[in-house]
């Protein structure tokens, strides 16, 4: 058997214990600071108004002086849940659109980790939100959770189309005014070109109609044949 020199191992073991303790302390403090900083980050989306309305209708409190809360019709609650699902569809579209851009910017170093943490937290919150909506839908109407987002997607697409049509109709008057101004400008330029061509034509015609001056003092040359005939007559 070999004798172990515990005194010689005491210093390395103490150094290792201190190193492990320091690492554990640093890791714990870092995780706590990261959690606090993540909790203080601004949310990716604003308040979910449709969800708050649905929860308010679902958990209606009794009025003062009344023991029972007012009964909310089931159709109103289902409509509120459907509006909540429509808002979730809009937010899902925004997350899918921003995910590729945020990932690319993060790889390039154009944005910090805070933005990516905000995005990941929003993505996780949306997953929980979708799961909650499905559960609420199945609780109201059995099997509704399987088709509620399909209906919400159709409503969102129709709303987007209506907004686009309203935008086009709102721009119709502006485009009409712009075209009227453009047409007036084109007409004015065209009339200027016609006036310029007319002036050029009048100037050219005037130069052709000018009289040709003939010098009457210069004796006219008599043809040789005519002079010979006159001599013969004599």
UniProtKB/TrEMBL annotation:
Query: What would be one Gene Ontology cellular-component term for the protein?
Result: Sec62/Sec63 complex
Signal peptide segment: none
* InterPro entries per UniProt: Sec66 (IPR018624)
Task: Give the GO terms filed under biological process for this record.
Answer: post-translational protein targeting to membrane, translocation
Q: Which Pfam families match?
A: Sec66
Q: Which residue spans traverse the membrane?
A: 12-30
Q: Where is the composition biased (Basic and acidic residues)?
A: 190-202
Keyword annotations for this protein? Membrane, Transmembrane, Transmembrane helix
In terms of domain of life, where is this protein from?
Eukaryota
- Region: Disordered, residue numbers: 190-234
Protein name as catalogued = Translocation protein sec66
- Organism of provenance: Thermothielavioides terrestris (strain ATCC 38088 / NRRL 8126)
What are the leading ranks of the lineage?
Eukaryota, Fungi, Dikarya, Ascomycota, Pezizomycotina
């Amino acid at each position: 058997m070999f004798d172990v020199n515990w005194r010689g191992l005491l210093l390395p073991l103490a150094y290792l214990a201190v190193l492990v303790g320091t690492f554990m302390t640093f890791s714990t403090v870092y995780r706590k600071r990261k959690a606090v900083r993540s909790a203080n980050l601004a949310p990716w989306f604003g308040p979910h108004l449709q969800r708050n309305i649905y929860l308010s209708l679902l958990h209606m409190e009794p009025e003062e002086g009344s023991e029972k809360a007012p009964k909310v019709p089931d159709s109103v609650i289902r409509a509120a849940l459907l509006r909540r699902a429509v808002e979730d569809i809009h937010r899902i579209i925004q997350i899918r659109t921003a995910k590729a851009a945020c990932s690319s910017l993060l790889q390039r170093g154009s944005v910090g980790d805070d933005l990516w943490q905000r995005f990941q937290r929003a993505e996780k919150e949306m997953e929980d939100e979708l799961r909650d909506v499905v559960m609420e839908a199945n609780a109201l109407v059995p099997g509704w959770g399987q088709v509620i987002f399909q209906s919400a997607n159709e409503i969102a697409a129709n709303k987007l189309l209506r907004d686009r049509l309203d935008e086009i109709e709102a721009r119709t008057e502006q485009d009409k005014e712009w075209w009227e101004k453009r047409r007036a400008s084109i007409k004015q330029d065209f009339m200027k070109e016609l006036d310029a061509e007319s002036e050029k034509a009048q100037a050219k015609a005037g130069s052709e109609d000018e009289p040709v001056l003939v010098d009457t003092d210069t004796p006219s040359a008599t043809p040789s044949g005519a002079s010979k005939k006159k001599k013969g007559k004599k």
